Every structure is written in C-alpha cells, then in structure tokens.
Amino acid sequence: MLKAGVLGAGHLGKIHLRLLNQSDKYELVGFYDPIKENAQKVEEEFGYKAFDSVAALIDAVDVVDIVTPTLSHYECAKETIEKGKHIFIEKPITKTIEEAESILELSKKHNVKGQVGHVERFNPAFTAVKDSIQTPMFIETHRLAEFNPRGTDVPVVLDLMIHDIDVILSVVKSKVKSVHASGVSVISETPDIANARIEFENGCVANLTSSRISLKNMRKSRFFQKDAYIAVDFFEKATEVVKMKDAPENPGDFDIVLQNAEGIKKQIYFENPTVEANNAILDELETFADAINNNTTPVVTLEQGTEALRVAHMIINDF
C-alpha cells in the first residue's frame, strides 16, 4: 500500500481524505491544513492525523494529494517533487503556464509521477462512450452551475470550463489552431460566464459555454462526427448515441431511413451503452496508485493538465 497524505482539508480535501482512507490501495497517513482551527476540527471529527507542517507531511508519505487553492498548487507540488514524492494535484494544475511547465520539468528530473484531478475523465457517462468518439468535427458543451463562493478566486474558465477543455483535448487528436472568446464578470472580480470557440488544425470546432451564476446545474456535451451523434450528460450520468449506416435494400417496418438530396439512404439506429455507477474521485485516485505501482502512464498526465491550462489561458487572454 502506498502511504498518502493530503494537503488541504477544505470541502474537497475532506472528500479526498475519506476516499483515501477507505481505499485498499492507499494507507492514509494524515493531512496538513494551514488553518489550525479547521485542522483541529477535522482531526477530532474524523480521526485523521493533522501534521504541523507541509514538510512533515511530505516526509511521512509516498504520495501527496494536493487539494489546496489553485494559487498554492505550485509551491506545494515543487516541495513535494523535490523530495522525490509522487503528486496527485487538483485541477487546474497551477495558476500559470510557467508554473505548470516548471512542475513538468521537476517531475522528470526527480523521476516522480503526477496526475491532475480532471475528474470528468472518470465520469461513467463519458467512459461509457469515449471509445465511440473517434473523429468529432463539431463539439458543443454547456457547464452551468449555481453560484458558490468557492472557486471564485479564479475565472470561470479555470473553475468550470477547464473540465470540458480537458475532455475535448482528450478526444480531438489535433492541435489547437485558434481561439475566440468572451467573458463577463457579474458577481466576482473575474469572469463568471464565458463562451469560447476553439478551432483545431484538422477542422474540428468546439463551442464551450460555462457559467457559475446559473439558476440550475447543467453539464452536457455533444459530439458530432461522420455518421454519429453522441451526447454526454455529466451531471445526470447519462448518454445518448445516435448512429447512421447504409440502409438495407428492404428496410423493416420500424427502421428509420433517411434519404439525402443525392438519393443516398441511411438508416438511423440507437446504441445504449451501459453506464456503470462509480465514484469518479475514488477511481482517479486508485488509477494513479496503479500507475505508480505498475510504472505506467497516469490517465491524466501532468502534460495533459498543462495543455488544458494553456488552452484555458488562450481563452482568458482573448476576453
């Protein structure tokens, strides 16, 4: 079992603590939180050991789970890596691209593994259809959330949209060609609602909308490719897959057949992939343990986390 420690015991940090504690792939050693009252409360309520410093926690573990505010990701990761310990780091990987690139170089220098917490890659609705998303040419995403003061220290692009940026980059096998975006600050000092259009070199276009001032929650993505439409509801954990194939010469009474202007007939059919219930955060933590134990590549690498951040900043810079 890998010895693990958590930096940050806020809302998400407590979830990570609970899941690491129940996992049979980790031994939870303890946590560090700079707010002493919070650390004491968590220690008393859950029985997790509170460390007095970041350094003391790092020295006691094999893996450090960084669940601190984004602004402190870099310093926490740097200190951890320089002591030769593996890092799991919440999204976004860091605040700046320079910080992310520095972490990348340090991880290579000290031969440690890192994974970024882009948890939607482990959403069961996405994993059920990701192999069907082959060559998407148009993608539309909506990620809307009710207002929550947590996360407003960064623009909505780094808070919410980056989830969809990472998912899109994982399925579009092409480089980003250009970005056009707009964002509006309504409640926060940084944009609370944003729209971005990402164009890729292979012709694929992605249109992303994110808001943290919505009256309802929505996390939907739609992928359009040759002969297929694939929809993923990340919030409801549901999928919709509509495909087309050449129509049979003698279609059945219930077959849906369309004919285009050139006279080509296509049959529409529906697939219902099984969406298996899971705990996405537990899955991402445990696959990282597997990557360390088996010396394999993590599902969401530091490089991928850096690229998602790079595109996010392209969007922010275009406001």
From TrEMBL:
Protein name in UniProt: Predicted dehydrogenase
Listed PANTHER family: BILIVERDIN REDUCTASE A (PTHR43377:SF1)
GO molecular function, one term: nucleotide binding
Superkingdom assignment: Bacteria
Residue span, Gfo/Idh/MocA-like oxidoreductase N-terminal domain: 3-118
Organism per entry: Lutibacter oricola
SUPFAM superfamilies associated with the record: Glyceraldehyde-3-phosphate dehydrogenase-like, C-terminal domain, NAD(P)-binding Rossmann-fold domains
Domain GFO/IDH/MocA-like oxidoreductase: 156-215
Pfam family, one: GFO_IDH_MocA
Stored InterPro entries: Gfo/Idh/MocA-like_OxRdtase_N, Gfo/Idh/MocA_Oxidoreductases, GFO_IDH_MocA-like_dom, NAD(P)-bd_dom_sf
